[in-house]
Amino acid sequence: MILFIWVISLFSQASEKLDTLALQEVQVSAPAFERFGQGQKVLSWNTTQLARLQNQTLSDLLSEQSPVFVRSYGPGMLASPSFRGTSAGHTAIYWNGLPLNSPSLGQSDLSLFPLIAVDHASLQFGSAGALVGNEAIGGSVHLNSKIPFNLSSKLLFSQEIGSFGQSNTHLKWSRSWKKTALQSKYYRHFAENDYPFKDLSLPGTPEKTQEHARVLQEGFVQDFSWRIKPDKLFKSSFWYNRADREIQAPMGSSTQDLQKDESFRWVADYEIIKSQSQWILKSGLVSEKQFFNQSLNQTRQFLLSGEWDYASKGNWSFHMGSRISLIKGELSTYSATDQRIEFFQFSKYQASEKLILSLNLRQQVFGDTFQPFIPGAGLDWKIWKKEEQELTFKFSGGKGFKVPTLNDRFWSPGGNPDLLPEKSWSAESGFEWKKNKLGQTLTFYTLNVDNWIIWLPQGSIWTPQNIKQVISKGIEYSGNTGFTLGQSIWESNWSFSFNKAVPIRGTSKNDASIGKQLPYTPIHQAAIGLKGTWKHWLLSLQGNYTGQRNITADSPKTMAAYKLFHLAASFKGLKMGRLQIPMQFRVQNIFNTDYQAIYLRAMPGRSYHFNLSIQL
């Protein structure tokens, strides 16, 4: 069916002229993983797109608008990503170039990243150890601040109320001049989460009301930019976030766990910009505290890096640098320090107007030894172009790695200081076709992860070992189009992904999980979206399908597939003098679907949300 759509679209003679808009030339500094990531799949959301989702979290964005499966333990609870069958620890997460994954756990909780806190988000798929660094085996998430110069003062106050005791408050102010720019954001998210659910742990699955699942999260973000001279720029961002959560118990359990998370994140860049080159000096700090019941765990990361970017007058571009990370962990069972040094070089060659090649290299020093060299390469080849149509072939391949976490090495009892880094290699190829307002992409990929760390019992003590090896293969297809109906403008997008992720080496030759789909890794996922604008109205509909998942490694029990649909309507025509008063009404889970992402973890049914904002 997919190939049929491609053939029909490619040779269709119907065409629609694009409107031409002349734009003033501006300098754009895209992240290195985008400029040197030829052949790799990347999804991005800009400021306007994220503004429509300001009351939701990174967990909602990935689960509703990407092929990434999010393992959610309940609304506001732990939510972890799974890129192409990999674990949460195989996803690197960055904020303004600063790594955010916990050095003790090696992963992040997506529910603790409100979208109001960032201005731009990107997803990079596949092993990209050379481009991105540690943990980018399945993919990576990049969150960034964007504050342009020469803009007048803007003030936004937003209040949303919703079902199950939900209340979200946002305050955002920005002001920029010729040489300086400021942006301040405050958010407060609260949810009682007292929704009804069917208790599968009891005979007859009686309906109960969810208890002990209250969530309160609030935070503050401050961004600052200063153009010291025309060729010198200083940028700094600070992000404070805290969350108090009653941990939702699984069905059949009466546990009353409490968890508090608190994080301080700071990053600063000093850039020297020349006609063909750019120097970037970066420093950053991430300090995290987690109180689980009465137990305190805290970690601190300090980063310092220097990078040089050069674009020749010919066809070559280069980016190189080094980065040092100092880590300290003080957990309930151990205290430890860690140090990592990385050297990297990216290069891109535009062989012609149709062909771009890239080669990326990274070397890490960890544990006082040089780790295996990490290469990556890719190409974008525009193999066909005619009038308003073009067809591009993409290919990339590379290695990835993940350093054992502090818990893996030092947890007492059971930590294993002799663990090797997990390593991977991946390759993907595909086609990107565009014709006027219609676009389609088709991607084939394979991913091999070796030295996968798994905790196993050694007598009465559990300890991690480099045992597992997993191969993940799949297909990802997506498309989008735009059209008009009368005075209304419509956009539609759709996607489908097939992923087969199975262990080829387990704990023993008789391991029942060998050759079977990894737990909580759907083979099939699909999504469809429709958005229409008419005058001051905006209407959007989003649908998602998540296929059947195995609950355990040996597949004796599975979870049923489910479909979710969400509807939102916005009106931006209400004004009072200089004040603009946009409103939004949305319905999550329109058809009140009874589902679970994780076994015996209740999820809410249909919910209603109303948002009123004041813009000045």
Task: Describe the overall structure.
- There is one protein chain.
- With 616 residues, the protein is mostly beta strands.
- The protein has a single domain (150-615), classed as TonB-dependent receptor, beta-barrel domain (Maltoporin, Chain A, Beta Barrel).
- Helix content is 5%, strand content 57%.
- It is built from 5 helices and 36 strands.
- It has a 22-stranded antiparallel barrel. Strands 1-6-7-4-5 form a 5-stranded mixed β-sheet. A two-stranded antiparallel sheet has the order 2-3.
- A hairpin with a 3-residue loop joins strand 15 (258-273) and strand 16 (277-292).
List the helices and strands and how they pair.
Blueprint: H1 2-11, H2 32-35, E1 42-45, H3 47-51, H4 58-65, E2 69-72, E3 79-82, E4 91-95, E5 98-99, E6 120-125, E7 139-144, E8 154-162, E9 166-176, E10 180-191, E11 196-198, E12 207-209, E13 215-229, E14 232-246, E15 258-273, E16 277-292, E17 295-311, E18 316-330, E19 335-350, E20 355-366, E21 369-370, E22 374-386, E23 389-402, H5 406-410, E24 422-435, E25 438-458, E26 461-485, E27 488-505, E28 524-534, E29 537-546, E30 549-550, E31 558-559, E32 562-571, E33 575-576, E34 579-580, E35 583-588, E36 607-615
Parallel strand pairs: 4-7
Antiparallel strand pairs: 1-6, 2-3, 4-5, 6-7, 8-9, 8-36, 9-10, 10-13, 11-12, 13-14, 14-15, 15-16, 16-17, 17-18, 18-19, 19-20, 20-21, 20-22, 22-23, 23-24, 24-25, 25-26, 26-27, 27-28, 28-29, 29-32, 30-31, 32-35, 33-34, 35-36
